[in-house]
């Protein structure tokens, strides 16, 4: 039975994809269209490619310290004290990211489904529901990711098929005009929609087939890129470039555009919202779990579930700090980006370099 | 005098002890008689009336003893040995004979329906196997009927049940291991498995859990189920149970383990997953296309059973924009003069259905069916005509109930019932977002369940997904396409022989 | 155990006081159509006159079809979205817009671009309004259009809505949704919306209103509308009459396609509109020995129709270019997509350049079938 306290390849891919696709997917088409117009898809692909080196670094580290999670062997690599500082930054990162995600989630639900319900209630209930799986272990989370991934995949296919009649593919044009100078900004924007795959810092320790873990990780990123591209194309074809730039959450508005002749299928945005709740849950679950794990490594306890519940009030308070949605998208977004740079780029690189140096010293 | 005492030489002393242990048990029978040419040797038998085959005793034990032992030569020394040897090896024509060396063993034997034969001057008690009692004949299982397929079901006698399995798998590698569980009930439990398929780790886990049970009595396999389950708090079962021998045989062939518990026709099958709980043996006896459609319908029914009332509340009371315009207007029109809000309507109708359900299980036979019809049709109809409830609500509640009956596993449907209420409450507060929250919580719960270490949601959640387990879970692929045993049993021998 | 109990009670206390969004479905008023007019009564301060149409839910119930199918309420308001608040003084239930299908804009209102801009912006911003509402312009007052009684009123979308969706038979009007109009306005500042003309007991949906810079600048007739639709590739079916030796021959287009081609010729931008139609012969005055089935006849008719299309379309385009200066044919959009470099150059001066475009129409007409008789 210990065979499947391990994470299978399919589950690893699913974890990466579902944790990545969180709230970024809602606003991504519009924000990238703002920067690069119809050629935004180029930035999406490049952004995906840009994450690959860091995925590789994380895999390499996991390979060197097989069976141990990042937050554990990190203490060995850079020393206990320094790693505690790292861990605190990681903790801050996860908490702010969670607050960011849950706040946007609350705003969307409030806008589309429950205008009169106080946003605190929406945030609190979502955090509570997510904490249930956050208290589980990586097995449960990867199983859940697998399940949700397939649900998402089926819904996406259905939506794409349903929107085909009303698509106007000419809206994609001109698809190749872009300013080279815009590309870095474009990639920057897109990169932070790929945030979430750092879950593999923990998951890789439990993978059952370590040889193909790297391949599976890459495939996970590939599928994420694919889904983002499809979203971008569909929203662009439906709205046209100008309207697309004006929408805050084009991926949801798109659902209202779908209509089949004969009236019956109307207002599909309800189903889209339901699927989207699942998507956000699949992003937040692993984040809560990781938060608990980081806390447990900071306090040197064996189990992490104790720490998950206290995270709820902290995350809720942070999420309610920004006063309006635009503040969320500017200030909080900035914070998340800086912290993400540390978490995804700086942290693993430092650890890798130090580990390699240590290896060389030993040999 | 304690029970662990060895058998005394003197017959009277032994009889005294036994009678003392069985004080106030008026259903114990004692018969003393003398054999030998000169009637000098005392023998006594003890048995419990009703538990023994009385003709076994009279024809096969007493008769040969009384007749033949008369002829024993009365030589004091040898006669004892002869007598004993004669009795045990020569005369008694009962097929199973054991020897007991303590009163304790003899008492236990009598309690299971065997007869104790005490011989004066001997320090052993002969235990004759004479079990036989009133039992139900083999009949079609009431809870799992099929259109085509075998109609024999398990009964309350363990031996009959193991026989039903043996008749289906005539392989010496099918092992039957007996275990006794329960301090007072000493219930026999048989563990069945096929040796070269089953996974050793799961088997040893099963054995370990059985050994660790400390309880008074195991009266039904459900009690055993609760005692060995991974998560006894959960509303969902993690062990399958069935009354059908063909289901058990098929599961054994998949590499699972069966636990037959004495005194109940419900046999446990371990490990169980969500996929197996949704399988029915009839799927394999009908053609694969129909069976596949039936299986898919079951899954849809599962969703309907959990979500329908919640969705009704969510769409009528919170977000009518989810409905197409025509439907929204129609629903609004049906609810015009209904005095209760949708939430109250839904809850009261669900409650009424639960009442009907409970009433139906108490009363069986013609009264039961009448109540079902009376309750369902008339009350529902009257409620609609009185305008208290909207007709759409009745339809939804009826469809939900029927949907939950399509699921093969009654316990699983019960778990879904529990979550249906939770989702209804959540949808009453938060609309469709509440429904999704409820689904998330239910999904998380299911995903965290394990059945003896096997993920409960396999193969949907990864284990076995890529190796094609789904073709026997989600649909029923033709036999020739199912070449491997399912992944979740981790069988030693993966390939079926087809 | 006690800990759980306390938590559960606390949660219940929080949540059960809530149910903040509960509103029974029969306690909502489902507005199906809205009319927005300029308030012309000088005595009242407010600028807008808003009319709401909503169905009588009780009439959907079985056996109750004698009652009125729809209700209508009008109110003056400062802004279009203020209207629903104004009505809270008169209606017992809140208005619900998610199932709204049609918005009728009064002619006078459309002549005030600022107000229209505000209105459209509000429509786009409001999460409660579906972007697929059909926009219709009333030649006159929207209130009149909405208050005409029609015999067979479908509750579900209303008469107007069903008409708009019934595009199959003729193209006398082109239904436009709000998102279509916004899209057109964004790209080339010009859009079209179907026109309704209220009459005594009914109303007509015919032709279109030409909107430029959020302002009504002219009308397009029915026939013109169908030709423009043909040029945009939107035509589903329509009839074109022509003559053959003094008799009218009717040709029905069953399939129309259009390709635009833009190319530079020295300094001039040329646009070729290539129209390809397929159709069948509807009617011809039966005359002795004339055989509508023979090739020569058909070819002549085809040529006649082709000439008619080209001529009429070029006339309309001339009007569009010179009189209205409105690029309804989405030529600008086409250029922005297929010739983006060219578009960058001309985008800013499109208003001046558009009238100078050299637009040629080439039609290719084919008669595929003549019906059942020769």
What does this protein structure show overall?
The complex is a heterotrimer of chains A (about 375), B (about 500) and C (about 375). Chain A contains 14 helices and no strands. Chain A has about 375 residues and is mostly helical. In chain A, helix 5 runs antiparallel to helix 14 (about 325-360). Chain B has a five-stranded antiparallel β-sheet, sandwiched between helices. Chain B has a five-stranded antiparallel β-sheet with strand order 6-7-9-10-8, sandwiched between helices. In chain B, strands 11-12 form a two-stranded antiparallel ribbon. The model of chain B has no long low-confidence stretch (mean pLDDT about 85). Chain B has 16 helices and twelve strands. Chain B is of the alpha+beta class and about 500 residues long. Chain C is α/β, with parallel strands linked by helices and about 375 residues long. Chain C folds into two domains: about 25-220, no CATH class; about 220-375, GMP Synthetase, Chain A, domain 3 (2-Layer Sandwich), CATH 3.30.300.210. Helix content of chain C is about 30%, strand content about 30%. Chain C has an eight-stranded mixed β-sheet. A four-stranded mixed β-sheet of chain C has the order 11-12-13-14, sandwiched between helices. In chain C, strands 1-5 form a two-stranded parallel ribbon. Classes of the chains: A mainly alpha (about 375), B alpha+beta (about 500), C alpha/beta (about 375). The interface of A and C includes residues 111, 121, 173, 243 and 267 of A.
Helix proportion of chain C: 25-40%
- Overall number of strands of chain B: 12
Largest sheet of chain C: 8 strands, mixed
What's the domain count of chain C? Answer: 2
> Mean pLDDT of chain B, as a whole number?
84
Shape of chain C: globular
Strand content of chain C: 25-35%
Describe the largest sheet of chain B.
Answer: 5 strands, antiparallel
Could you spell the SSE succession of chain B in H and E letters? HEEHHEHEEHEEHHEHEEHHHHHHHEEH
Calculate the mean pLDDT score of chain C and round it: 77
Terminal CA distance of chain B:
62 Å
Share of helix of chain B, binned: 40-55%
Gyration radius over CA of chain C: 26 Å
Strand content of chain B: 5-15%
The helix-and-strand class of chain C reads alpha/beta
List the chains of the largest interface with their residue counts.
A-B, 41 and 38 residues
Bulk shape of chain B: elongated
User: Can you count the helices of chain C?
Assistant: 11
Question: Rg of chain B from C-alpha positions?
Answer: 30 Å
